[in-house]
Specification:
Blueprint: E1 13-19, H1 27-42, E2 52-54, H2 67-71, H3 91-103, E3 106-108, E4 112-116, E5 121-129, E6 135-140, E7 146-149, E8 153-156, E9 168-171, E10 176-179, H4 188-196, E11 201-205, H5 212-228, E12 231-235, E13 252-254, E14 260-263, E15 269-275, H6 278-286
Parallel strand pairs: 1-2, 2-3, 10-11, 11-12
Antiparallel strand pairs: 1-15, 3-5, 4-5, 5-6, 7-8, 9-10, 12-13, 13-14
Helix pairs in contact: 1-3
The chain binds 2-oxoglutaric acid.
The site of 2-oxoglutaric acid has 10 residues, from helix 5.
Length: about 300
């Protein structure tokens, strides 16, 4: 959870999504490659450096409920307490913080399996770093990916994970950014709350699959973008058919009209986009749903 002080002014910025490939069983290799890709992304596109770099869900370990406890790291971050990265027990936190500091860019560190020693539970957790390398925000996936589509895909994150119980955003000098992870996108409440708390952009590291990816990956991002008149972006791992989980890829950025600004294919790539606040302001002015809500008709969602 983050402070509800007024949101920063929304300014133009450059966003880079790393559709990371080659995530395998060796965590040190995964971290090394993710770091190299952050440095590559920070070199920018035609000399335009990004302000914010995003990694995908579960970037330091294979994806699957059996892997989470094996790869889990203690992070120990709390939004209401100062956090010292130098004494963090998490090697992933240290790498992400160093990479943010070295490049001078905001980093949304995808997600990693987290173990919280205070309750001895495991979470799917996203951490966020300022350009000074400070860990400023954290989001634990709220809605666990438990689905069963016979003959296609059965997945049960709740076998080993616990869902987080907070909504989260962070403030930069260019936008207020709301956080979610993958399956969270299916629950409009999370992004609706973030938008009503002043978020301009939603970033959801994610890893849809070859069944639900073609069905819903783009549709859900467009829906959440249009519902809330915000920019919406999900960053996926690259597809690896030799891995246990086949990610859909297709990382993308959608504007507040629902227009897809950029979309990857399935392989490893870095997507660079310029985010211009104008479509957000134009959409809200021209189709003013954000001021036309009838909370008298649905008071249970008015808080
Ligand atoms: O919602 C879906 O279809 C996929 C979700 C997912 O892969 C995840 O939460 O990791």
């Amino acid at each position: 959870m983050s402070s509800l002080a007024s949101a920063p002014a929304f300014k133009p910025f450059n966003l880079a999504l790393i559709q990371l490939g080659g995530v395998g069983p060796n965590k040190s290799e995964n971290l090394k490659h993710a770091r190299e890709m952050i440095l590559n992304a920070a070199n920018g596109n035609s000399g335009v450096k990004p302000d914010l770099i995003v990694l995908p869900e579960c970037f330091n370990s294979p994806y699957g409920h059996a892997h989470f406890p094996v790869y889990a790291e203690t992070i120990g971050f709390r939004h209401d307490k100062p956090y010292d990265v130098a004494s963090s027990p998490s090697e992933s936190v240290k790498m992400l913080s160093d990479a943010a500091k070295e490049t001078g860019v905001w980093v949304v560190g995808g997600s990693i399996p987290e173990r919280d020693p205070s309750d001895d539970k495991f979470y799917n957790t996203c951490t966020v770093y300022s350009p000074q390398g400070k860990l400023v925000a954290m989001h634990r996936k709220v809605h666990l990916f438990d689905i069963d589509i016979p003959g296609k895909i059965t997945f049960k994150e709740s076998e080993t994970l616990t869902g987080g119980n907070t909504t989260n955003f962070f403030d930069t000098d260019f936008a207020r950014v709301g956080l979610g992870i993958c399956y969270d996108v299916r629950f409009p409440e999370l992004s609706m709350i973030a938008a009503r708390q002043g978020c301009h952009v939603m970033i959801y590291p994610g890893a849809f699959n070859l069944t639900t990816g073609p069905m819903h990956w783009k549709l859900l991002q467009q829906a959440r973008a249009v519902d809330n008149q915000v920019f919406f972006s999900m960053c996926s791992p690259a597809r690896d058919m030799s891995a246990g989980y086949h990610a859909w890829g297709h990382s993308m950025v959608v504007d507040p009209y629902g227009t897809v600004l950029v979309e990857a294919e399935e392989g490893e790539t870095i997507l660079h986009t310029h985010i211009d606040p104008k479509p957000l302001h134009d959409a809200r002015q021209g189709i003013p749903v954000t001021t036309q809500r009838r909370f008298d008709v649905y008071p249970d969602v008015s808080k």
